[in-house]
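The following block was generated as part of the benchmark described in Methods. Ligand: zinc ion.
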Amino acid sequence: MTNLEKQTDEILALRSIFDTKFRLLDDNNQYEILIDFDLIEPFIIRYNDERTIINHLPPFTLIIHYHEKYPSDYPPSFMLSCFYFSKSSLQNLCQKLDNYSFIKDEVCVYDWIELIKHEITNEIILQTKDDEQINDLRALNGYSNENIDQIYQSLINYNNEQHDKQFRNQLQTCLICTDIIPGMDFIRLHRCGHFYCRSCLNNYVKITLNNGKFGEKLHCPQHQCQKALPPNEIKQIIQDAQLYQRYERLTLQHALESMNNVIWCPRSVTNRKEK
Ligand SMILES: [Zn+2]
Ligand SMILES: [Zn+2]
């Protein structure tokens, strides 16, 4: 087999393994693969004194460039990109790939991917001291000291987005009506994380409001969960402008009545009690 045939075969194999995470970049000799890490639970991100447990990390990008001497003589050229790796750890990883014992005539990209995957298993530590001289141009997009706060936050945001996406795409059971329906038809309460199908939650909130309960008394329907629903969540659940206005009036009136130093203006309409 010629080098070109082996390269074509390797591309076919990688494309079938990585599917949408594989992308040809230029003619047939350059491509990128988005590599997902297999995280061992609980996976921890550490940053200064903070630690967060997550389940999802953004993919790592490996860019491969074939040349005519691969795989007969040398490994292909590559570039590595990952925004939550420090510049120096990306550079170290470049060196690891350089030190990989390449066997002439054998393709190596899949083995490289396995090697990269083993870089992260159960935690990452975002370090603020990373002052080594960086000169390996193949290490793209690593973080430096200045933007480390943003990196930490964007990893948390990414994890939350993936978690929501997974929830929306799976079947879930409503704790009120016990129906099993797709997650996208559910509302998850921000304060406690309990979730209910839209129509059950809508009915529950409307009935509770119509019974004159609001504020701390309008809480998550889960038995023993007393987390009150915040106004924006109530608005989203009931989808009823008139009812929401009534809720706002009740809340305001209640708040004013509980203040000792408020004197009602006899000419103001707000003096009238909500019936
Ligand atoms: Zn339900
Ligand atoms: Zn709850």
